Amino acid sequence: MGGIFPVFFILFVIFIIWLNYERVKSSRLDEERKKQFWNRENDANNVRRKSLDDLNYIKIPEWLLLSELSPSLPKDDHELLRCSDVFSSLKNQRIFNLTGLTSTDIKMEYGPANLAILDEYDQNFTLFAQTIYAYGDRLNTLGFDMEAIKVLRFGIDSLSDISGNYKLLATLYVKYGQTEKIGELKETAQKLNSLMKNSILRHLDNIESENRNTQ
């Protein structure tokens, strides 16, 4: 026993020294990250205001409205009407996708003077993306699959990161024997600057895999 105790004591001392070293290292890294953040934030706050006129805004097409999408659609469906009204309200507003960008990123790119208005444009995009999926989902539920595909495709082309948009569209592609188009969805998903990117890609892989297993 007398020989074992010193060994445990030495190991304990080594562990304490290592633990202290890791704590100091972590603290030093945190300080460095904070320093880099505030340096970048300071630089961003000094960026001159840039013109927002030539940005790639999303335009609401006329065909997206309920009155234009298809003459056979029910014009009294509450959810379809709600979605169409949202699109009508967004038609004359600017819609811009800033998904994945921090306020510092936005200020660095466009200037701090544009932060508030760009936040408004990004909120418009969020509302647009959510409504596109809700619209497509309701059309699918009502049995208007071709219209649903058209609507959901527009959401994908606009780089929506709503995972349901991708999953439902992929499921419809499988239903109508267009599984090769799932590859196109993957290509678009790869472009996303979103935390949802990997989850979306996994969902698409699973849908492809399930389709192969049922053939």
Task: Describe, in short, the structure shown.
The chain is mainly alpha-helical and 215 residues long. The protein has helices at 4-44, 66-69, 78-90, 103-110, 115-141, 145-157, 163-175, 182-190, 197-213.
Report what the structure shows.
With 215 residues, the protein is mainly α. The chain has 9 helices and no strands. It has a single domain (45-213), classed as Alpha Horseshoe (Serine Threonine Protein Phosphatase 5, Tetratricopeptide repeat). The chain has helices at 4-44, 66-69, 78-90, 103-110, 115-141, 145-157, 163-175, 182-190, 197-213. α6 (145-157) packs across α7 (163-175) and α8 runs antiparallel to α9.
List keywords for this structure.
single chain, 215 residues, mainly alpha, Serine Threonine Protein Phosphatase 5, Tetratricopeptide repeat, 9 helices, flat
List low-confidence stretches. Answer: none
What's the order of the H and E elements? HHHHHHHHH
Helical coverage, percent range? 55-70%
Would you give the CATH topology?
Serine Threonine Protein Phosphatase 5, Tetratricopeptide repeat
> The biggest beta sheet, please?
none
Query: How would the global form be characterised?
Result: flat
User: How far apart, in Å, are the first and last alpha carbons?
Assistant: 68 Å
**Which structural category do the helix and sheet elements fall into?**
mainly alpha
How many structural units, i.e. domains?
1
Query: What is the number of E strands?
Result: 0
The count of helical stretches stands at 9
CATH class term:
Mainly Alpha
Q: Please indicate the percent range of residues in DSSP E strands (runs of 2 or more).
A: under 5%
Mean pLDDT score: 89
Radius of gyration: 26 Å
